[in-house]
Amino acid sequence: MTSPAVDPSPSTPTTAEPAPVPTALPGAAPAKPARRIGGAVWAALAIVYVVWGSTYLGIRIVVDTIPPFLASGSRFVAAAVLLAAIVAWRHGPAALRVDRRRLGSAALVGLLLILGGNGLVNLAETDIPSGLAALLVAAVPVWVVLLRTVAGERPGLGGYGGVLLGVAGLAVLTLPGLSGEVGIAGVLFVLLAALLWSLGTVSSARLPMPANPFTASVYEMLAGGLAGIAVGLLRGEHHGFDPGSVSTASWAALGYLVVFGSLIAFTAYAWLLQSAPVSLAATYAYVNPVVAVLLGALILDEALTWPIVLGGAIVVAAVCLIVSTERRR
After folding, report:
1. Number of other CB atoms surrounding residue 24 within 10 Å
2. Residue 108, by phi and psi: left (phi above 0), alpha (psi -120 to 50) or beta?
3. CB of 67 within 8 A of CB of 234?
4. Which residues, at least 6 apart from 103, have a Cβ–Cβ distance to it below 8 Å?
C-alpha cells in the first residue's frame, strides 16, 4: 500500500509504503536554500514513482493464489529480516537496540500501518481491481487532516477544502461497489485500511519512536508482518493452502514486493529526503495512483469506468491541494 505524502504536523515525520518514512531524518542537516537536482535524484524519483505505483498490481497478482494476510505478513517479515541485516551490516548490531517504550511504539505503528493498512488492502484486492484500490488509498491525506482536526490542530482552509474535495472523489469511487460492478466489501475494506494507515501516520509523529528511522521500520514491519501471519492463521487461510499450487506469477510478484517495494523504493525515498527538496519527493503522491491505474488496465485488463476516471481525478486534485497547503505551512 502506498500512502500519499502529507505532514502530520509541520515539524513531525510522515509515513509511506511500504514502511513509515520520516519527512526529515533525525539529526539531518537543515535544508539548504537551493539543491542541485542531478541524475541520481531523478533516478531515485523514478524508482519511487514506478515501484510504489506498481505495488497494487503486485498485490493483485499475489492474492490470486496466495491467501491475503499470509501473503502480506510473510512479505513484511521477510523485508524486516533483510532490512535488519542491512542496518546491522552498515551500522553494527547496536543500531537495532531500542528500549521497551520505543519498541512498543514501533510495534503499535506497525500494527496500524501494515496489519491494518496493507493487510486489508491485500484482502480487498481479492474482490476489487488494483487501480480502484490505489485511488481509494490515495485519499489518505484526507483522513490525516481529519485526524489532526480531532487532535486539536487546525490544518487551514486549504486543508479543509482538500478534505471536501477528497470526500467527493471517494463518493464517486464508491459507486462501482454500490452498483454491484465490484464487491462493496472490498471498497469498504480499502476505506478502513486508509483510515488505519492514516492513524498510524499520525501516531508515529506523536509516539516516542526509535531514533534511527530504518531501525524503526524493522520493528514496524516485523510486528505488522507477524500479526498479519497470525490473523491469516486465525482466519484459516492455511487450511487447504498448498504452496505447490501457487502460481509462478504470484511467487515472482511476492519477491518483487519484498525486494523492490519494501527495500529498494523505501531506501530510494529515504535518500531523496536527504538529497532533494521534500516538495519534489512528495510528488510521488500524485503519480503513484496514476501508475497503478495504468498498470492495472494494461497488464490485468482492468476496466477504466467513468467513476474510476472521474473519482480518481477528483481524489488526485484533493491530494494536490492538501499537500501544496502543507508545504506553505
Report:
1. 18
2. alpha
3. no
4. 210, 219
Q: For every one of its 329 residues, what pLDDT tens digit does the chain have, with 9 covering 90 and above?
A: 544 444 444 433 333 344 443 333 333 344 444 445 678 888 888 898 889 889 999 999 999 999 999 999 999 999 999 999 999 999 999 999 999 999 999 999 999 989 999 999 999 999 999 988 888 887 777 787 788 788 777 777 777 788 788 888 888 888 887 777 788 899 899 989 989 988 887 888 788 988 888 888 899 999 999 999 999 999 999 998 899 999 999 999 999 999 998 888 877 876 776 677 655 666 776 788 888 888 998 998 888 888 888 888 888 888 788 777 766 65
CB 53 within 8 A of CB 290: yes
Element (H, E) at 168: helix 157-178
Q: How many CA atoms lie within 13 A of 237 on its CB side?
A: 21
Q: What is the pTM of this model?
A: 0.79
**The length of the chain, given as a count of residues:** 329
Identify the residue whose cell numbers are 551490516. Answer: 89
CA neighbor of 63 nearest in space, from 221, 289, 228: 228
Measured CA to CA in angstroms, residue 292 lies from 2, 14, 54, 120, 130 at distances of 10, 22, 6, 17, 7
Q: State the residue for C-alpha cell 537495532.
A: 96
